[in-house]
Backbone:
């Protein structure tokens, strides 16, 4: 079936679309680097605990009483926080749960990092070579995980905000949601002067087929880049449906 070329006179082509977040095409937001760091960190934790238990036993009698209490409290804090931190990181990253991943970041940056730096920098703690080595490895894990989790959390937050606007558009018709949706699509397509968004429809102004096809391709690529998947209802002089292409001349303005 051949498609008749439009006339050379300038006219808008009515291009109705339906937008949705496709479960099949949904972008995976879990961070692979973060998951690898958490995996190796979980294996390293028992060796860290064993090393610290041995070193603490060797130097415990050489420490003042208040440093004995401080070190015991610090090690117990690190072990408890590390277990909770790894759990929140695993669940938050794999299941793309923003609150759990945020909790992972808070535990890492606010609690574990200061305690570990205290043990490494205080000279009266009497850090032995084995302790310096295992603390250094744990600190590298901690810094790398904070950086990776920050990027993953940023991507997840953007994706959730986009989902919120789309659900608002689909679930609350007539309450200002179409305007919000128009703003969202206009932000994506604002560079194209010949593309207008009206409610759930896109109007594309072209003079020739040679101009029209590349512009449609650019529009679809821009929408896919922000996870907006499109079901084309009508295009040019044909209606797009389950039975194929049908005549839809009435759709052209």
Residues:
């Amino acid at each position: 079936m051949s498609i008749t070329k439009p006339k050379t006179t300038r006219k808008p082509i009515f291009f109705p679309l339906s937008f949705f977040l496709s479960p099949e095409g949904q972008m995976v937001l879990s961070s692979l680097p973060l998951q690898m760091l958490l995996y190796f960190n979980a294996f390293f934790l028992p060796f860290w605990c064993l090393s610290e238990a041995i070193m603490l036993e060797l130097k415990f009698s050489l420490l003042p009483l208040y440093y004995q209490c401080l070190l015991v409290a610090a090690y117990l804090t690190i072990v408890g926080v590390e277990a909770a931190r790894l759990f929140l990181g695993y669940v938050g990253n794999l299941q793309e749960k923003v609150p759990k991943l945020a909790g992972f970041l808070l535990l890492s940056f606010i609690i574990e990092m200061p305690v570990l730096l205290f043990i490494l920098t205080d000279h009266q703690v009497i850090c032995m070579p084995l302790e310096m080595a295992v603390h250094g490895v744990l600190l590298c894990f901690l810094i790398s995980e904070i950086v990776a989790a920050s990027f993953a959390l940023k991507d997840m937050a953007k994706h959730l905000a986009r989902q919120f606007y789309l659900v608002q558009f689909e679930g609350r018709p007539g309450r200002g949601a179409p305007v919000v949706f128009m703003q969202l699509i206009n932000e994506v397509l604002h560079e194209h002067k010949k593309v207008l968004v009206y409610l759930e429809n896109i109007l594309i102004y072209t003079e020739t087929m040679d101009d029209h096809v590349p512009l449609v391709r650019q529009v679809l690529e821009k929408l896919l880049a922000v996870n907006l998947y499109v079901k084309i209802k009508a295009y040019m002089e044909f209606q797009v449906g389950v039975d194929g292409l049908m005549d839809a001349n009435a759709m052209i303005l």
